[in-house]
């Protein structure tokens, strides 16, 4: 009898052990899924960086080859929102369009921008202006929103729906609400790096290149003017020519130190 009870006890113990192992396996599987998701997300980010960095590297190689052959240097590839020949007077007169939207939509756009590696470092005032300028766009199921290789003019934030991103016919990922896409061609002044198609009906917010660049340049030029004024107020720099001060202002970085 004692042996039967012992066996029953041992069996109960084994069952409990198995139950605990099953629970651990479930937990580890969940962790694995989360890690797979993270790897996929990082892989996508890496692919995105590669697709904008490669053209720049190729350009640099072409550049050094042409420089070696005595051809004049062309300007380096840059994020297209860098201030160019405009001055602050031109841009301060530009009135940006304003499209009213619900507080939820405003939050969704802001969060989408802050979640995007290429846009999250924008200043909050710039993000606010982008939010205000974005207008609604809708596409039906199976529509092509962006075609790889095309010249791009719009950046989108998805409010509702699902899209698929492919490159050279290979699926890269799917994207749902709260995601930015179409930013690379505008930020890096390159052609569309991938194709984006709808899997269901989608609701998007869009901003065009011109508005986007006005927002970027205006902030850049305001900062440049502020930095110039600051540099001119520093006695050591007072004798420097305007041109040199302007170059210094281009590379000046603000840093906060608490005393
Ligand atoms: P853009 O190149 O303007 O147009 C295609 C868009 O697809 C691109 O901007 C990105 O927003 C998006 N995209 C490109 N490559 C990837 C990727 N590997 N993962 C997710 N999205 C991508």
UniProtKB/TrEMBL annotation:
<dbReference type="GO" id="GO:0060087">
    <property type="term" value="P:relaxation of vascular associated smooth muscle"/>
</dbReference>
<keyword id="KW-0418">Kinase</keyword>
<dbReference type="GO" id="GO:0090331">
    <property type="term" value="P:negative regulation of platelet aggregation"/>
</dbReference>
<dbReference type="InterPro" id="IPR031831">
    <property type="entry name" value="PKcGMP_CC"/>
</dbReference>
<dbReference type="InterPro" id="IPR000595">
    <property type="entry name" value="cNMP-bd_dom"/>
</dbReference>
<protein>
    <recommendedName>
        <fullName>Cyclic nucleotide-binding domain-containing protein</fullName>
    </recommendedName>
</protein>
<dbReference type="GO" id="GO:0005794">
    <property type="term" value="C:Golgi apparatus"/>
</dbReference>
<keyword id="KW-0547">Nucleotide-binding</keyword>
<feature type="region of interest" description="Disordered">
    <location>
        <begin position="57"/>
        <end position="76"/>
    </location>
</feature>
<dbReference type="InterPro" id="IPR014710">
    <property type="entry name" value="RmlC-like_jellyroll"/>
</dbReference>
<dbReference type="GO" id="GO:0005524">
    <property type="term" value="F:ATP binding"/>
</dbReference>
<keyword id="KW-0808">Transferase</keyword>
<dbReference type="GO" id="GO:0004692">
    <property type="term" value="F:cGMP-dependent protein kinase activity"/>
</dbReference>
<dbReference type="GO" id="GO:1904753">
    <property type="term" value="P:negative regulation of vascular associated smooth muscle cell migration"/>
</dbReference>
<dbReference type="Pfam" id="PF00027">
    <property type="entry name" value="cNMP_binding"/>
</dbReference>
<dbReference type="GO" id="GO:1904706">
    <property type="term" value="P:negative regulation of vascular associated smooth muscle cell proliferation"/>
</dbReference>
<dbReference type="InterPro" id="IPR018488">
    <property type="entry name" value="cNMP-bd_CS"/>
</dbReference>
<dbReference type="GO" id="GO:0005246">
    <property type="term" value="F:calcium channel regulator activity"/>
</dbReference>
<dbReference type="GO" id="GO:0005886">
    <property type="term" value="C:plasma membrane"/>
</dbReference>
<feature type="domain" description="Cyclic nucleotide-binding">
    <location>
        <begin position="118"/>
        <end position="233"/>
    </location>
</feature>
<keyword id="KW-0723">Serine/threonine-protein kinase</keyword>
<dbReference type="GO" id="GO:0016358">
    <property type="term" value="P:dendrite development"/>
</dbReference>
<keyword id="KW-0067">ATP-binding</keyword>
<feature type="compositionally biased region" description="Low complexity">
    <location>
        <begin position="57"/>
        <end position="69"/>
    </location>
</feature>
<dbReference type="GO" id="GO:0030553">
    <property type="term" value="F:cGMP binding"/>
</dbReference>
<dbReference type="Pfam" id="PF16808">
    <property type="entry name" value="PKcGMP_CC"/>
</dbReference>
<dbReference type="GO" id="GO:0030900">
    <property type="term" value="P:forebrain development"/>
</dbReference>
<dbReference type="InterPro" id="IPR018490">
    <property type="entry name" value="cNMP-bd_dom_sf"/>
</dbReference>
<dbReference type="GO" id="GO:0043114">
    <property type="term" value="P:regulation of vascular permeability"/>
</dbReference>
<dbReference type="GO" id="GO:0048668">
    <property type="term" value="P:collateral sprouting"/>
</dbReference>
<dbReference type="GO" id="GO:0019934">
    <property type="term" value="P:cGMP-mediated signaling"/>
</dbReference>
<dbReference type="GO" id="GO:0001764">
    <property type="term" value="P:neuron migration"/>
</dbReference>
């Amino acid at each position: 009898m004692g042996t039967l009870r012992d066996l029953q006890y041992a069996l109960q113990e084994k069952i409990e052990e198995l139950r605990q192992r099953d629970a651990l396996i479930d937990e580890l599987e969940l962790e694995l899924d989360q890690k797979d998701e993270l790897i996929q997300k990082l892989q996508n980010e890496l692919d995105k960086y590669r697709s904008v960095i490669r053209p720049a590297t190729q350009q640099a190689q072409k550049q050094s080859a042409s420089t070696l052959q005595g051809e004049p240097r062309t300007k380096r590839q840059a994020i297209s929102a860098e201030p160019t020949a405009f001055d602050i007077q031109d841009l301060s007169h530009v009135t940006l369009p304003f499209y009213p939207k619900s507080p939820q939509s405003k939050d969704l756009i802001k969060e989408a921008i802050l979640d995007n590696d290429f846009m999250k470092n924008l200043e909050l005032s710039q993000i606010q202006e982008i939010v205000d300028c974005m207008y609604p766009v809708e596409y039906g199921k199976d529509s092509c929103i962006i075609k790889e290789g095309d010249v791009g003019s719009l950046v989108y934030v998805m409010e509702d729906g699902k899209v698929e991103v492919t490159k050279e016919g290979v699926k890269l990922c799917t994207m749902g609400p709260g995601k930015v896409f179409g930013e690379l061609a505008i930020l890096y002044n390159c052609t569309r790096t991938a194709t984006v198609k709808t899997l269901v009906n989608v609701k998007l917010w869009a901003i065009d290149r011109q508005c986007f660049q006005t927002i970027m340049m205006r902030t850049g030029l305001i900062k440049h003017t502020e930095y110039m004024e600051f540099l001119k107020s520093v006695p050591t720099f007072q004798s420097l020519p305007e041109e040199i001060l302007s170059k210094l202002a281009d590379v000046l970085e603000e840093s906060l130190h608490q005393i």
